[in-house]
Structure formats: C-alpha cells, structure tokens
Please model this.
Amino acid sequence: MLILGIETSCDETAASIVEDGKIIRSNVVASQLSLHRRFGGVVPELASRAHLQAISPVLEKACQQAGVSLQDLGGIAVTYGPGLIGSLLVGVSVAKSLSYVHNLPFIGINHLEGHIHSASLSHSINPPFVSLIASGGHTSLVFIKGDSDYKLLGATRDDAAGEAYDKVAQLLGLGYPGGPEIDKLAQRGDKDKIRFPRPYLPNSFDFSFSGLKTAVLYYLRDRKKLPVTGFKLRDADYTLPGTGKLSVSEVADIAASFQAAVVDVLVKKSFRAVMETKVKTLVVGGGVTANRGLRKALRDKAEEDKIKVYMPPPDLATDNAAMVAASGYHRIKKGERSNPLTLNAVANLSL
Ligand code: KG4
Ligand code: ZN
Model:
C-alpha cells in the first residue's frame, strides 16, 4: 500500500511516498532555512507563505520521483499538530482537498508520533519501548506500550534541546540552525574544558535546558568575551560588557562542553526511563538525534547496558514526510480514518 505523507508543521515543506510503511519511494524536503536565517529563527508568517509557494511543486516532485500518480495511492497522511498554526494549515488543507477529491483514505498524524516512527523506516521495531524525541520544539520521553498506546513520561519545562542548541549557537555568533554548527565545532573542541551544569531534575523525566543556556551566556559575560562574528543579543536581554574576542578553538571548546552537558542529560534520563519501564529498547528521533556526539553516547551506553537503541539516519531524524507516511500506513491499515471535511490543525496537539 502506497501512502502519501505531507508535513508542513514548521519550516520544512515535505512530501513523501512510502510503500507498506517501510520502503521510501520518494522523500522531498523543501527547506526554508535561507529565508529564516537572517532572523536567527523561524518567522511564522514567512513560513506559512513559503509553504503555500512550495507545496504544489513538492507534491509533484514526490509523485514523479516515486513514479506514481494520486490514483495509485492507498491513502494520504498529514501532520495536523503540534506546530505553527499557519504552517500546519497549509499541509492540512491540501491533504484534505486531495483525499476528498480523489476519494482516498485520510488520516491526521501527530508530528511527535512521526518522529517516534522515523527509526522504524529502517528497522523492525516492536513495542514495548521507550522513545526519546529531541527536536527544536520538543524534548520528550514517551513509553510506547503497544501500537498507538502512548504514555508521556516527561517533557521539556522550558527550552527544548534543539532550541538550546540554536540559542547557544546564536550566543557564539554561529549560523542558524545552530545544532549542526555546534555538532561540527564540538568535534574539534575539548568537552572537559568547561563544566557546564547538567540539569537532571532527578525525580522526574522532565527536561529543562534554559539554565544551561544561561550558564553559557554567563560564561561569556564573565570572561568579557565577544564571539568570533556578529554578536546580536537584543538590548532588552542584556548588554555584554566586554570587548574581547573568542578564538575559534575557544568557541570549539565551549561548543563541545555545552554539547557534553546536553548529551549527558539526554542519555542518562533516557536510559533511566528504559530501566524504570523495564523495557529493553530505546528508539530516538527528532533533529537533535542527528547529532554525532549524542549518537555515539547512545550507542556506547546501549552496549554497556545491553539495551537495543534504534536511531533514524540523520536525514530522517530531522523533519520529513516519510515518517508521517509511515505512521499513516499503520493507522490506515488498522482501519482508522480522519474526516477530510472536518479535521483541523491543532497547534498544541499532545500525544
Ligand atoms: O526535528 P526537527 O527537524 O524540527 C522540529 O520538529 O523542531 O529539529 C530541528 C532542531 C533544530 O533546533 C536544530 O538545531 C536541531 O534540531 N538539530 C541538531 C542537529 N541537526 C539539527 N542539533 C544538534 N546536532 C545536530 N546535528
Ligand atoms: Zn520535528
């Protein structure tokens, strides 16, 4: 069964055709990074407009690459939340129209469920397992007891892990998105150079990364250092007192030390969740799980604890529509349907 997946929850317009929830026939992602880069983050209104422009060509390309037409499809799956409401509405409206006009089975998918399923495109994974979702908008630990049976164990109380990466990258004068930049720099930095705090919140599976971000800010302030390139905090945030410059190797050490703190927290809490739920499998997804330092730490700890860890390849860890199609396949196969006349986008949809 061929499922068309559509994903427009944030700043990527994506469409993908997946066969039987496993074989990726096409996977098209039109990124809006260049549009948002100069603002240092996603501008919602610009994102909605860019989705409107990109959605038709992206859909056409996905069908062309897969060599299929809409009539060949067994269904359409679309992300209907959580995300930016204007962005979500573009994908949801298009998916509803297509399924109604072509009389195709239709299902709305939670974006987080998509991230949970992204690893299953390249591995056979059966519940029960624990899933760590670490992205720009979420850091969540979820206990998947059975098919579509989710229990949220913990979530971020403030900044998501990816958001912390992006903000720290901004403090260091690096580009947007910051995750891949810090990932690269961290490879050549000394992760033990600076001991940034590890926000473990020991009695909970929740996360909190805003204090860690502030610790990097104070580290820079106390050393009266300015980053290598244009440091642009808004006046309202605070004014950096010094005029010193950071060398590239200093930036690399800060990046590596910051990353070590994030990785320690994500790995420790994920494996504690695995232990407490008494499962043997951890499945990860979301943009931050493309991080090389995190992937290595997860593999090492899994080997030590004799736990199986499944990760999507880096290009499926970040937002894509193949994960939406895969999630849609499982639900449509079970006979689940959304109503193409009434499904609405839900910005704060929970699992
Ligand atoms: O899952 P995703 O593509 O979109 C959301 O659902 O938010 O995640 C995007 C986030 C951004 O914050 C980005 O900086 C981060 O994932 N990211 C990374 C890496 N690649 C993307 N963070 C750390 N290391 C990476 N290699
Ligand atoms: Zn995402």
